[in-house]
Amino acid sequence: MKTLFLVGVLSLILADTLKAQNQADPFQYVEVEGGVTIPIGNLRNTMNTAPNVGLWIRQPYTNNSIWAFGFSFNFPKNTHIQYVNDDFETETKPFSGVVGFRLDKRYSLHKEKKIDLVWSSIMGYGFYLFDDVRARAGYESWPQSKKDDEDKPVFVKPFSTIHIGQGVQLRIQDFGVQARYNYAPYAVFSDIIDSRFGSHSLTVGLFYRQ
């Protein structure tokens, strides 16, 4: 009887302790980021340093690992580009980024003050919008009967690619700073541009979790 009473008391103490820990540092499922994306290498000829915003929905995976799904978008200026092996010239549109998955590995630096260091790995769909003037020219050559029978094509299209990122975050309570390297080889899946378009960038900024 005494043993059962002792187990009950210990269980209540443990439950209260866990509850206090959860209230002190509850898991934060939503992360919002803001900053700038800085082009590196050839991408400097295509893209300027551009504003960046992102949103990630987070889910605990293990004690120190977190899965997340979300996006990170950039808003660069329009830039003129030349088609590869063609006479057409067009311009990029002010929208690029990634939609995908992120895996975070968390390292606690100071548990009581809620200070963490996080190593992040991202993989997803990368894109950079442009105006396909070659497709526009092709549409203008359609006979009127074809234009009447078919829907008008979409001419603002993405350069689509695989996006890979590696980054680090320093969190202090609900806020933090981050830096992330991005690799998006836009030319690999396109016959309009080549490697001179660029692939590399660095995103830096702040984030907030709730």
How does this model look, in words?
The protein has 210 residues and is an alpha+beta fold. The protein has a single domain, classed as Porin (Beta Barrel), CATH 2.40.160. It contains three helices and nine strands. It has an eight-stranded antiparallel β-barrel with strand order 1-2-3-5-6-7-8-9. A hairpin with a 2-residue loop joins β7 and β8. 24% of the residues are buried. The N terminus is likely disordered.
**CATH domain class:** Mainly Beta
Task: Quote the distance from N terminus to C terminus.
Answer: 45 Å
In total, the number of strands is: 9
- Hey, roughly how much beta strand do the residues contain? over 45%
Uncertain spans, ≥5 residues at pLDDT below 50? 1-24
Element order: H for helix, E for strand: HEEEEEEHHEEE
Lateral arrangement of strands in the main beta sheet: 1-2-3-5-6-7-8-9
Number of helices: 3
Largest sheet: 8 strands, antiparallel, barrel
CATH topology: Porin
Q: How much is the average pLDDT?
A: 88
Tally of structural domains = 1
